[in-house]
Design goal:
The complex is a heterodimer of chains A (about 250) and B (about 20).
Chain A: H1 11-27, H2 33-38, H3 46-53, H4 57-80, H5 90-108, E1 113-114, E2 119-122, E3 125-127, H6 138-152, H7 158-169, H8 180-200, H9 206-235, H10 237-243, H11 246-252
Antiparallel strand pairs in A: 1-2, 2-3
Helix pairs in contact in A: 1-7, 1-8, 4-5, 5-7, 5-9, 6-9, 7-8, 9-10
Chain B: H1 5-12
Classes of the chains: A mainly alpha (about 250), B mainly alpha (about 20).
Chain lengths: ~250, ~20
């Protein structure tokens, strides 16, 4: 041990954890690096932007709900492949996914984000924040883009991103967990593996602290998403009930 | 359980990303 690891977690165990979680991430990351490179980072043309902007609010909300749900399905698969996740009781698996799946979608967003142009891959091309104007959530959209930009600035490797995503999913402080201790153990091990990886990759000491700040930023983004959804649902209850993906409704209590 | 039917299904299925 180099003093960073607990006496019960060996270096070999941490290396193994890094390998397994990285593999799970790559198998479920929705877009591979090679695919992303082939996307040619094409931006929407002005008339395409205007066409999104002129969509009725409910149509744009539905489109975004569908895209978020697609991304979340991959996160669920990721969670299932994290060592120990499927050994948790089913209540806790659900609690962790309800609270953490959208957070991981936001973390993964940096893979499909172009910092230079402030655009994100959406519906086949790269979209700036103005594309989402019809949602009526400009402040939230700006915050999501700012978050993606700041994640990009950390230049995390796929391995580091994988470990951070697992760390987020295994947050032991989520409300309604039944076997908190069990989750805590898994999260601690994941954190050790992340620290171990950062050291191995010779990242500067500040990266882990920067990632710690991201945890609260993610929570804020997700609670604001819930607020916006509540406001939307208050005006369009039938659209949410009949047109939104069932998984989205289960996760966000719509 | 009924409240999280889809999540339960996804957790129980042995799906692969290709199936998604």
């Amino acid at each position: 041990s180099d003093g960073e690891t607990s006496p019960t977690t060996s270096m070999a165990e941490l290396d193994h954890l890094v390998q397994v979680i990285s593999k799970s991430h790559l198998e479920t990351c929705q877009y591979l690096r090679e695919e992303l490179q082939q996307m040619s980072w094409q931006n929407f043309l002005q008339d395409e932007v205007e066409s999104y902007q002129s969509k009725p609010r409910e149509v744009m909300w539905q489109l975004c709900a569908v895209k978020i749900t697609e991304a979340i399905q991959y996160v669920v698969e990721f969670a299932k492949r994290i060592d120990g996740f499927m050994d948790l009781c089913q209540n806790d698996q659900i609690v962790l996914l309800k609270a953490g799946s959208l957070e991981v979608v936001f973390v993964r967003m940096c893979r499909v984000f172009d910092s230079q142009n402030n655009t994100v891959y959406f519906d086949g091309k790269f979209a700036g924040p103005e594309v989402f104007k019809a949602l009526g959530c400009d402040d939230l959209i700006t915050s999501v883009f700012d978050f993606a930009k700041s994640m990009c600035s950390l230049h995390l490797s796929e391995d580091e991103l994988a470990l951070f995503s697992a760390f987020i999913l295994l947050s032991a402080d989520r409300t309604w967990l039944q076997e908190k201790l069990q989750v805590e153990k898994l999260q601690q091990k994941t954190q050790l593996a992340l620290q171990h990886l950062l050291q191995k990759n010779q990242r500067e000491d500040g990266v882990l602290n920067k990632l710690r700040f991201k945890v609260s930023a993610l929570r804020s983004l997700c609670s604001r998403h819930t607020e916006k959804l509540s406001a939307f649902r208050a005006v369009y209850p039938d659209i949410v009930r009949t047109h939104f993906p069932p998984l989205y409704k289960e996760l966000f209590g719509a | 359980k009924e409240k999280h039917k889809i999540l339960h299904q996804l957790l129980q299925n042995s799906t692969s990303p290709v199936d998604l």
